[in-house]
Write a structure and sequence with these properties.
Distance between the termini: 128 Å
Order of helices and strands: HHHHHHHHHHHHH
Helix content: over 70%
Largest sheet: none
Number of helices: 13
Number of strands: 0
Structural class: mainly alpha
């Protein structure tokens, strides 16, 4: 009986080994680069990000001369973007653009670089807006650089939103200094808002502050110029500016 049992085990091992060998199919051809790339895309679409990254890295590292290696580089950046890994995605997009500045999808890459900054930036204007400024720098001139881009309208809209947020932040700082009667600082912030973010919904607010800050500093000519500019931008705000102007008490000048 023991010999029969041993024979059965040996037979099972032999059959199993033969089946494994058949499944291995050593004569099967290795997948092409295109097949590997398509497999990576399928993995990414299904959320198997680790497997997708393995496929794309394999193409990028071992098939550098293949045109799909470039596509794999971009896919790696897209993968990080899908995972909301904003810093890694931005670095990958920036590396791609540095290596391939004339790539046909350069507009897409620039759009995505800006988006990684935009999505990470705080929406509240009172908080640190360094990332918003970086997004503005990334997207400035996009419409002239890529006039035919399908991403142009989206970028232009987001750029306007970012500039408005920066203008709102400058206005908040100017109002802060106004509350402390720090008129030179008020003037600097209000003037900076108009220079750096002119055309925002806060232009009239900045001009009212300029009128007032110039008046408190005894700069009548400059206050009048700011008031005239306010008439052009928003005449309805002129009475408010005139009231502030009338309440200003500029410092007394030395008679000697």
């Amino acid at each position: 009986m023991a010999w029969r049992a041993l024979g059965a085990v040996v037979l099972w091992l032999c059959v199993g080994s033969s089946a494994d060998a058949a499944r291995a199919r050593p004569d099967r051809k290795a997948p092409t680069v295109a097949e590997q790339y398509d497999l990576g895309l399928k993995y990414m679409q299904r959320g198997y990000y680790v497997k997708a990254l393995e496929q794309f890295n394999r193409i990028r590292n071992y098939h550098r001369d293949d045109p799909l290696a470039m596509r794999a580089e971009l896919a790696i950046a897209d993968l990080h973007y899908k995972k909301a890994e904003w810093d890694q995605a931005r670095l990958a997009y920036e590396d791609f653009l540095r290596m391939h500045p004339r790539h046909p999808e350069a507009d897409y890459v620039v759009q995505r670089i800006g988006l990684t900054l935009y999505k990470k930036a705080p929406k509240a204007a009172g908080r640190d807006q360094t990332l918003t400024r970086q997004a503005v720098n990334t997207w400035s001139g996009f419409d002239s650089r890529f006039p035919e881009s399908v991403h142009k309208d989206e970028v232009v809209g987001l750029l306007a939103e970012c500039r408005e947020r920066l203008a709102r932040k400058e206005l908040g700082i100017a109002e802060f200094y106004r509350g402390r009667a720090a008129w030179p600082a008020v003037e600097g912030r209000a003037a900076g808002l108009l220079v750096d973010h002119g055309g925002s919904p806060y232009d009239a607010d900045a001009l009212v502050l300029l009128v007032e800050s110039h008046a408190w500093q005894g700069e009548g000519v400059e206050a009048t110029k700011a008031l005239d500019k306010l008439r052009e931008v928003d005449a309805a705000r002129v009475p408010e500016a005139e009231r502030r102007l009338s309440r200003a008490r500029p410092p007394a000048r030395d008679g000697g």
